[in-house]
Fold this protein.
Amino acid sequence: EVQLQASGGGLAQAGGSLRLSCAASGFSFDDYAIAWFRQAPGKGREFVATITWRGRLTYYADSVKGRFTISRDNAKNTLYLQMNSLKPDDTAAYFCNTLTGALPWGQGTLVTVSS
């Protein structure tokens, strides 16, 4: 069974930091480019960042560029998102999936940033 379990969310103040993790199982994690997505209350899901299968290339949405860093550990089947200089607009549920969103979506982890 494919599982994508995001964790590490919580409450942070503006300017603070959080580190998210996504534990993957049930598929060949290191065969895929993996991405973070987020969905703010009342809005659609949007792309945040992606990393290629070996971790050599990364790409970010303009809204998080310079503040967020995506990384992966293929030995642990885990994806990470280091979030610095958080803003209230970063408040959302964060999810991981392949870049194309091909796998079943997990429950995500909620990030709330207070001003």
Remarks:
- The two ends are 40 Å apart (CA to CA).
- The first strand starts at residue 3 and ends at 7.
- The beta strands are 3-7, 10-13, 18-25, 34-39, 45-51, 58-60, 68-73, 78-83, 92-98, 109-114.
